Amino acid sequence: MDLRYGRGLSENTVRAYRADLMRFFEYHSAEDPLAGFTVSGIRGFLRHETARGVESRSLSRELSTLRTFGNWLMETGRHDANPARLVAMPRTSPGLPGFLSIAEVKQVLETYDLSTILGVRNRAIVEILYGAGLRAAEAASLSVSGLDIGARQVTVTGKGNRERIVPLPEPTCRYIDRWLSRRSELVGDGAEDPGTLFVSVRGRKLDPRDIRRIVAFGVGRAARAAGATPHTFRHSFATHLLDNGADLRAVQDMLGHASLSTTQMYTHLTMERLRQAYRKAHPRGKE
């Protein structure tokens, strides 16, 4: 409750924190749940996670969860110290995000059958994932009232309940408008309208998992885009903007990144593409 309401974290983040803590407690399996919350107990847990193949990024998140938990224990008087603060963060490799080419994005978009209402809805969902660079949870939570087709923009509530306004390209607006003309068919007269832009066949708000399944359906029918997820379309959005000269801070604002350093990973991705093109095309690129 403190994480969800007191700290304003998203439901997905709270769910991840809860899962991390459950793994920690299951590892120690003591009668006293705090018996293993020591420096050695935390290090032992991280070694166990490493042995079972957990990647460094996930290890860092688990330790971050334990640090947050330790802070809460101190703030509420349940513990007089936070041993998780004495454990060093695992080293993580930066890793560049995957992305699709414009042709690959188009191939996925064209897999949805626009003769059906669900095909129209699903096309609009993937259009806005790519057209506005949204996370799956953000797309699921978009409200009809936050959409301004005339101004070609949408209000998005991102991580930490931070709102941002993102412009929409004309093709995305066209497919969203097409979906809006049929949305009422899924929100029956007797059902309570959830107010979200996208709804299920029963007229309910979609879950981020629904968004992932919708993307997986299109990707599964587009061989050139194998393995793509909703986040791949977000990465593609950012990469294509920067490739075409967009300002880094403008891209930061559109993605809803709190830190510019998070957005800068896309500049590394773009530079790597330029280096590859240089090595392939320049007469001395392979020397």
Structural topology:
Blueprint: H1 2-6, H2 11-28, H3 39-51, H4 56-75, H5 102-109, H6 117-132, H7 136-141, E1 147-148, E2 153-157, E3 163-167, H8 170-183, H9 208-220, H10 230-243, H11 248-255, H12 260-263, H13 265-281
Antiparallel strand pairs: 1-2, 2-3
In short:
This protein is mainly alpha-helical and 287 residues long. The chain contains 13 helices and 3 strands.
Description:
Strand 1 (147-148) and strand 2 form a beta hairpin. Strands 1-2-3 form a three-stranded antiparallel sheet. Helix 3 packs antiparallel against helix 4, helix 6 (117-132) crosses helix 10 and helix 10 packs across helix 13. The chain is built from 13 helices and three strands; from the N terminus they run H-H-H-H-H-H-H-E-E-E-H-H-H-H-H-H. The radius of gyration is 22 Å and the shape is globular. It folds into two domains: 2-86, DNA polymerase, domain 1; 102-279, Intergrase catalytic core (hpI Integrase, Chain A). It has helices spanning 2-6, 11-28, 39-51, 56-75, 102-109, 117-132, 136-141, 170-183, 208-220, 230-243, 248-255, 260-263, 265-281; strands spanning 147-148, 153-157, 163-167. The protein is mostly helical and 287 residues long. Helix content is 54%, strand content 4%. The model has no long low-confidence stretch (mean pLDDT 86).
